[in-house]
Amino acid sequence: MTDRRRIFLLLAPALLILGGLFLGGLGLTVLRSLRYMPALGLTVPDLSAYRAVFASPGFLASLTLSLWIATASTLIAASLALGAALLLRQSFPGRSVISFLVQLNLTVPHIVGAIGILYLFSQSGAFARLAHAAGLIAAPGEFPALTHDSFAIGIILLYVWKELPFITLVLLANLQGIGEDYESVARSLGATRWQSFRHVLLPLLAPGLIAASALVFAFAFGAYEVPLVLGASSPKALPVLAWQAYTDTDLSTRPKAMAMAVVIAGIGLGLLLLGFRTLRRGGPNAR
Amino acid sequence: MTTLSLSGLRKSFPGAATPALQDLALSVESGALTALLGPSGCGKTTTMKLVAGLIQPDAGDIRLDGQSILSLPPERRDVAMVFQNPLLFPHLTVAGNIGFGLRMRGIAPRKIAEEVEEILVRVRLQGLGDRFPTALSGGQQQRAALARALILRPKVLLLDEPLSNLDAGLRDEMRSLIRKLQRETGITTLVVTHDQAEAVAIADQIALILEGRVAQHGPPQDFYQRPVSLAVARFFGGVNFLPGKVAGSAFQSALGALPLPFDRADGPGILTIRPEALRLGPGPAAMMAKVVDSSFLGTQSRVGVTIAGIRLEALVAPETARALTPGTSIGVTLPPDALWVLPPDALWVLPPDQAGVSPDISTA
Predict the structure, then answer these.
(1) How far is CA A47 from CA A52, A125, A151, A228, B93, in A?
(2) What's the burial of A203, exposed, middle or buried (CB within 10 Å: 0-12/13-18/19+)?
(3) A286/B90 touch (CB, cutoff 8 Å), yes or no
(4) Which of A40, B7, B329, B349 keeps 20 to 30 A from B42, CA to CA?
(5) Is pLDDT at A176 greater than 60 in this prediction?
């Protein structure tokens, strides 16, 4: 068997799943968003669903909210992860315990985490009751709105909690590959501790940081279950809006749902491509 | 011209059985190229990192022009280090790498560009400034790393095994380049190496480090002609060692009394002579010996002979060695001016074929 055929055969299962299920599903979604549904007699594709989506009053607010959630969660999680990774790189007593705790919540499903946030931070949650019991607030309802609030604080809190370990793990793996020699060189060439971080370590870490952040952004932008549990009733995050349009008893809203799904996927994919393009340029992997 | 002096340096690493450095003292000649020579694990690189400020000693002091630099962070020591691997920053071009130190000092970009251009020529990398490090060969990367340190005109330049990752041909080229640039700039330079031939070829001064201490420090020829101990002589390829004692101006041993050309207090010692100084063939002072073995080494041959049960080795021209088959009798001359006496050594162990010959040093 030639090498090329073997490689093809080995890749076939992955390609089948990727091509058949993912691209097929995406293709069908795109077709339906273009109102191409021969079973219903719609055989001429058009953009009316997209026009309806962009014209609907809530769309812009939902898009803004989703972008806000994704941007804020990604930035906060990435900065905290950078600090955590730099800290965990050093050896100190209890490092392995902290390392384990940091990785632990990777295994907790998002929806479970969301319900946890609800129990802890909602106005009838544990912290509200604690604050009330301690006499800090007159009634649990006076507790600041951290869930179902218009700034999506609960949602961002959950995403930061959930995605921080993921970015930290990626960065720790990168740090291990980079080693400490580059920083030693920089220091001996007259760079201060900060300069060697800013001009050597950070550029070397950037590809991994950007790639991991792009994945987190795409997820936070496109996932619907967390905003469904923790989000305000208006405006709704874009994925929630799409899900509701899809499950609506009125079948005519389906193309609109599909159009929104395509917009979400498009923005997510675009960001991922941008992230991976940065990854290919330079960095320790290009050595 | 900068004097660098190390005194009483100690350094242990957690988990290591023996300390990397124990009481290392060294005064480096200013403006010269000094080789820190020693077997791997002897503490050479540790010494460099201590001078660069990348690690801190457990005890001792490092002074630059009389001032202790121990409390200074690496970036304020004015000491630049070139590592064993080039370690060029992969996200910067060659010019970006070489100009890095100047940029960190806040020098104007135009001035940096000028200096980088100038040094690129000196390390023969002209025209390659815009490339990324991955597009350079190993030798070019090493030269860029050297330029990156030299451009800062540091008080002390530290080179850690700068030749070890290069092929034989490139190694000679890099060695002459280092030598040339060091002479031109007069920067006090320390080169770490484990290769004694390399140290001899490149350095004005050699500091041989054995077991975390400076065993001998001086010009290269001293290590051949006047080693201070058995360990130093062995490290520099010494093979002929003869136990005995100094009495008057002669050395008493199994070979009788050999006159010494230098004064030495009476007492036990080990006589040594370089294998290349032994003369085979007839002569007025020749002793009769028997050839034991002979091996061809390329430009020379190594001939083993025994006299009175003592094994000696000589390096001779291959054509001389051809006639010397094992069992042949031949005259051996030990020229008096090539003799040297080492102090008695507690670690003195006789080669197996000489066991039974009493090394009269038990009184040491």
Answers:
(1) 9, 45, 32, 28, 48
(2) middle
(3) yes
(4) B349
(5) yes
**So what CATH class is A49-110+160-286?**
mainly alpha
**B229 occurs within a structural domain:** no
Whole-prediction pTM: 0.79
Number of folded domains in chain B?
Answer: 2
Task: Kindly indicate the confidence band of residue B48, based on its pLDDT and cuts at 50, 70 and 90.
Answer: very high
Are A287 and B149 in contact (CB < 8 Å)? no
Co-location of B109 and B216 in the same domain: yes
Q: Can you read off the two tokens belonging to residue B243?
A: 């136990």
B231 within a domain of the structure (yes/no) = no
Rounded to a whole number of angstroms, the distance from the CA of A93 to the nearest CA of chain B is 14
By CA distance, what is B79's nearest residue in A? A188
Give the model's confidence band at B349: pLDDT under 50 very low, under 70 low, under 90 confident, else very high: low
Pairwise pLDDT comparison (A280 vs B116), residue with the higher score: B116
pLDDT of A71 over the 80 cut: yes
Last residue of a domain, one of B200, B223, B246: B223
Q: Determine contact, residues B315/B276, Cβ cutoff 8 Å.
A: yes
Q: What is the pLDDT of residue A283?
A: 45
DSSP string, A29-50: HHHHHTT-BGGGTB-S--SHHH
Cβ distance B152 to A181 less than 8 Å, yes or no, reads: no
Question: Between chains, do B73 and A187 touch, taking CB under 8 Å as contact?
Answer: yes
Read off the pLDDT of each residue in B157-175 and give the average, rounded to a whole number. Answer: 88
Neighboring chain A residues of B132 at a CB cutoff of 8 Å: 282, 286
Instruction: Give the residue with greater pLDDT, B148 vs A127.
Output: B148
CB contact under 8 A, B74 and A287: no
B247 phi and psi, to 5 degrees? -140, 120
Q: Are residues B139 and B64 in the same domain?
A: yes
Q: How far is B40 from chain A (nearest CA, A)?
A: 19
pLDDT reported for residue A9: 87
> What number is the ipTM of this complex?
0.80
Q: Do B73 and A181 touch (CB under 8 A)?
A: no
pLDDT band at B361; cut points 50, 70, 90? very low
Residues B215 and B244 in one domain: no
Chain B residue numbers with beta carbons less than 8 Å from the beta carbon of A188 are 52-54, 74-75, 79-81, 149, 158
Contacts of A190 in chain B (CB under 8 A): 75, 80, 101, 104-105, 152
Q: Do A187 and B104 touch (CB under 8 A)?
A: no
CB A256, CB A54: distance < 8 Å: no
CA distance B102 to chain A (A): 8
The answer to whether the Cβ–Cβ distance between A192 and B149 falls below 8 Å is no
Domain span at B276 = 238-353
Which tens digit of pLDDT belongs to each residue from B284-300? 888 999 999 999 888 89
Distance CA A120, CA A112 (A): 12
A186: nearest CA partner in chain B = B101
The pLDDT, as a whole number, for residue B91 is 93
Based on the fold, state whether residues B45 and B99 are members of the same structural domain: yes
Q: Is A205 near chain B, with CB under 8 Å?
A: no
Closest by CA position to B82, among listed B126, B123, B39, B31: B123
Both B162 and B215 in one domain: the answer is: yes
Contact B91 A282 (CB under 8 A): yes
Instruction: Please check whether residue A187 touches B, CB under 8 A.
Output: yes
Q: What strand order describes the sheet that includes B240-247? A: B256-259, B250-253, B240-247, B267-273, B340-342
